[in-house]
Automatic annotation (TrEMBL):
Domain Peptidase M28, residue spans: 115-325
Database matches in InterPro entries: EF_Hand_1_Ca_BS (IPR018247), M28_fam (IPR045175), Peptidase_M28 (IPR007484)
GO molecular function terms noted in the UniProt entry: metalloexopeptidase activity
GO-annotated biological processes: proteolysis
Protein name: M28 family metallopeptidase
PROSITE patterns from the UniProt entry: EF_HAND_1 (PS00018), PROKAR_LIPOPROTEIN (PS51257)
Organism lineage string: Bacteria, Pseudomonadati, Bacteroidota, Flavobacteriia, Flavobacteriales
Length: 350
């Protein structure tokens, strides 16, 4: 009897110790996530955006000189921060041929363009890929006016840069993500989601190995519905393909940010149909779980007045950190999130 009691006591002690260790590990993971999220700042986001959405980049029209300057800016950032190309070597550009663009676009004669692809290799599950995306292009110059596209989608673009830098700082400290992360800047979104379509048809990593796409398209402004309570972001698509991703997203927000997650545009009956109108949808068509982060439209949407001085950088910081925390959790959790639903809708485009 004494021996049985001793064994039972020892097992209880071991279970308690294991639970305490697990709790400590969870706390350590929280502390690490918060540590690197804190490196994402309104100041740094603003520094990037006042350059990226400046007149120098001429509205970043697909295939035009301003867009070429934009992709060089993105490449130089990744090189400077020691973040590798997903293609290997010093080539960060996935070429999108003019012939392919014009075959797939309904919007005129387009020149060749490129997606920008940077990559952090996972420490434990390198073949599982978490994609963080934003579109790098905008409307260019119309009637002599430059459409700078600060919110659309300069805000998403610089958010991806800051998220990448935060993960890279974790790598340098020996805290790199368990799964690999692809930082994907796609071209031709304004021409019909073309860059993301090209990537998903010509993926650098198997679509079957792609865990999810966290897509950021306009997160720097406030729409009319939220002027009284601006601490919000619209989430679209988080529950369309993966219940698990949706629940994870909710839990991460509650733990770290407490942003009002507004699902108004996630309603299948919403007439705006935003779920089908940004780059995440090309992943969703291949049954890759997605989340689309969006601040809604505003008076400067698709106008030359969408300039970086109108961005709310505190909100941009908060929303960018939310995406980082979500990516951190997806990349570091023990099991890959499961897609328990199937995408059945047809492509509608932008």
């Amino acid at each position: 009897m004494k021996k049985i009691l001793y064994v039972a006591s020892a097992l209880a002690f071991m279970a308690c110790s294991s639970s305490q260790n697990a709790s400590k590990n969870d706390d350590a993971n929280v502390d690490q996530a918060a540590k690197y999220a804190a490196t994402i700042t309104a100041k740094d986001l603003g520094t990037h955006l006042f350059t990226y959405a400046s007149d120098e980049f001429e509205g970043r029209n697909t295939g035009e000189p301003g867009q070429k300057k934009a992709v060089e800016y993105l490449k130089n950032f990744y090189v400077k921060n020691g973040i590798a190309s997903a293609l290997g070597g010093d080539d960060y550009f996935q070429e999108v041929p003019a012939e392919w663009l014009n075959k797939n676009s309904r919007r005129g004669n387009l020149k060749s363009s490129e997606n920008v692809v940077a990559f952090i290799k996972g420490t434990e599950k390198p073949d599982e890929i978490v994609v963080i995306s934003a579109h790098l292009d905008h409307e260019g110059i119309k009637n002599g006016k430059i459409y700078n596209g600060a919110d659309d989608d300069g805000s998403g673009t610089v958010a991806v840069l800051e998220i990448a830098e935060a993960f890279q700082k974790a790598v340098k400290a020996g805290k790199g993500p368990k799964r690999s992360i692809l930082f994907l800047h796609v071209t031709g979104e304004e021409k019909g989601l073309l860059g993301s379509k090209y990537y998903t048809e010509n993926p650098l990593f198997p679509i079957a190995n792609t865990v999810c796409d966290l897509n950021i398209d306009m997160i720097g402004r406030i729409d009319d519905r939220h002027k009284a309570d601006p601490n919000y972001v619209y989430l679209i698509g988080s529950d369309k393909l993966s219940t698990e991703l949706h629940n994870l997203s909710e839990a991460v927000n509650k733990k770290y940010m407490n942003i009002n997650l507004d699902y108004k545009y996630n309603d299948e009956n919403d007439p705006n149909r935003y779920y089908y109108r940004s780059d995440h949808y090309n992943f969703a068509k291949h049954n890759v779980p997605i989340i689309f982060y969006f601040n809604g439209t505003h008076v400067d949407y698709h106008k030359h007045t969408d300039t970086p001085d109108k961005i709310n950088y505190e909100l941009l910081e908060n929303r960018t950190r939310l995406v980082f925390y979500t990516a951190w959790e997806v990349a570091n959790r023990e099991n890959r999130i499961i897609a328990d639903k199937v995408e059945q809708k047809k492509e509608e485009g932008k």
